TrEMBL record:
Belongs to the class-II aminoacyl-tRNA synthetase family. Phe-tRNA synthetase alpha subunit type 1 subfamily. Its EC number is 6.1.1.20. Pfam families: Phe_tRNA-synt_N (PF02912), tRNA-synt_2d (PF01409). This is Phenylalanine--tRNA ligase alpha subunit. Residues 110-326 form the Aminoacyl-transfer RNA synthetases class-II family profile domain. It catalyses: tRNA(Phe) + L-phenylalanine + ATP = L-phenylalanyl-tRNA(Phe) + AMP + diphosphate + H(+). Keywords: Aminoacyl-tRNA synthetase, ATP-binding, Cytoplasm, Ligase, Magnesium, Metal-binding, Nucleotide-binding, Protein biosynthesis. Tetramer of two alpha and two beta subunits. The gene is pheS. GO terms for cellular component: cytoplasm. Coiled coil: none annotated. GO terms for biological process: phenylalanyl-tRNA aminoacylation.
Amino acid sequence: MKEKIRALREKTETAMRETETGRALYELKTRFQAELKSIMSGMKDLPKEERPAFGKLINEFKEDMEAQFEARAAVVRQKEMEAKYAAEQIDVTMPGRQYRPGALHPITLVKNQLIDIFSGMGFKVFEGPEIETDYYNFTALNTPKDHPARDMQDTFYLAENLLLRTQTSAGQIRVMEEEKPPIKILSPGRVFRSDDDATHSPMFHQMEGLVVDRGITLCDLQGMLAEFARRMFDASTKVRLRPSYFPFTEPSVEVDLSCSECGGKGCRLCKGTGWIEVLGAGMVNRRVLENCGVDPDEYTGFAFGMGIERIAMLKYGINNIRALFENDVRFLEQFR
Ligand code: PHE
């Protein structure tokens, strides 16, 4: 018996000195207790008179070992803390990690600003589909097949009557079919034309505006655009309407803003004219209202459509439209 206790003590004390973690110590203690229990169970085989002395011995052993376990636990805890602190130490002299926050794309910036300006005037946003039928993109907009105005917009056809919309004006029809006047919508989105040079891209963005109500006139259009120009550029920006032609508006106008570069004196940007063309607009053609079941004798309206890229290029002084689509971060970072 005594021999067994001595062996267990020696074995346990040696192992204990090597424990480095609370977990290892706990496992050792569990093993020790099991073995101690098995020694104690041998007590019943001892002669009766030897039992008290043995009981005393085993109790002392147990208490001593428990004290040792406790002492070792304190040491191990300290060791673990030290290891943890060493691993988590912060070197305040190390250079910081660089964060490179993203930025909104200039097209998104201008689009959001347009929505902001016009929603302040009571416009609601409507988004139409990018794949359109020939009817919504052309025919309902008073541009039937073989109409020469179709040549103004070189179209990507997907099928006989299905195409990539060439203009957000298609949204005008969708809205007027769904809603009764008064109507006041803004329709942003991608449009597509087979066109590619320094100022044209086969995919670009437009922002359409449509107002239909009783007594709407060209003056309302002009006033609204003047407010838009002041807020998008600056308070001194002037608006000029020039006669033009679109099948879906009558009369139609081309809208120019006074050149932001030279203030109207004439420079390279405005090609010496002092004016820069920014959008097409006009009074909604009676035929278009009729096509949508709106009585043209009761209601009138105006519509306008502008290229978002064009506004962004003017606002930020970008001279090649490709810069907007190449996604060169050195370019995009400037809009942070
Ligand atoms: N949809 C025309 C274009 O893309 C612009 C426009 C919109 C003209 C609304 C008049 C009215 O060129």
